[in-house]
Amino acid sequence: QPKKKKMLLMDALFNSLLVVSSGYALYTLHPLETPYGYGAAALSLVHGLLGVVRAASNDDDDCNRLRLITSGIMEIVPLPLTNIELYLKSSSPSLAMAHVCFVVPLVYDLLAKMGDNEDTSTETLKELTLLGNVVSLLFLGVNQSSNMYGAMAAIAFGARYGSVILDYYWEGLGSDFNLLAHSVFILLMTMTMSVK
């Protein structure tokens, strides 16, 4: 029982970090100037708040169900939204809307989670979505000569695969690392988008 309490406390701490970084992003970004970045920050804020509530309510079932859905959203949506925003402000804005197709796996993921029938094809689609977005962000970073874009791509990649590796060695640590990486990603996204 003390181990579970400690895990919930750590979960609350890392979710609070996500809430703070998302709140900072919502405060800094303007919804009309950077709507996609603002949307990514808003999704992160909701996810973080649900995590804090879940930890405070001692792993409530209803909260766990909502959290499972927002976790699927967080795996897929923030990176394509960030890419859309960054491509719109780049020298090749026509490529921005191509990233909308990267959100399609979200529909399959949500349907699978709601029906409790996740399969490997959904996971494969999510992996391809992530890798496609990471490569796209790296491509944009090279074209715009931006180290910040490369850092964001590395963090997105690390959030997904680093958390899997950490979870393998110490169960529960992967989700905390994922929250930390999402927090840093949102901060870097905010810094990148708020530069005039």
Largest sheet properties: none
Name the average pLDDT: 86
Number of helices: 8
Shape type: globular
Q: What structural category do the secondary elements indicate?
A: mainly alpha
| Regions with little confidence, pLDDT below 50 for 5+ residues | none
Order of helices and strands: HHHHHHHH
Percent helix, as a range, is over 70%
Model description:
The structure is a single chain. The relative contact order is 0.14. The mean pLDDT is 86. 80% of the residues lie in helices and 0% in strands. The longest helix is centred in the first third of the chain and has 27 residues, at 2-28. It is mainly alpha-helical and 196 residues long. The protein has helices at 2-28, 35-56, 61-76, 78-88, 104-114, 120-144, 147-169, 173-194.
Topology readout:
Elements lengths: L1 H27 L6 H22 L4 H16 L1 H11 L15 H11 L5 H25 L2 H23 L3 H22 L2
Helix pairs in contact: 1-2, 1-8, 2-3, 2-4, 2-8, 3-5, 4-6, 5-6, 6-7, 7-8
What are the salient characteristics of this protein?
80% helix, single chain, globular, mainly alpha
Concise account of the structure shown:
The protein has helices at residues 2-28, 35-56, 61-76, 78-88, 104-114, 120-144, 147-169, 173-194. With 196 residues, the protein is mainly alpha-helical. Helix 2 runs antiparallel to helix 3 (61-76) and helix 3 (61-76) packs antiparallel against helix 5.
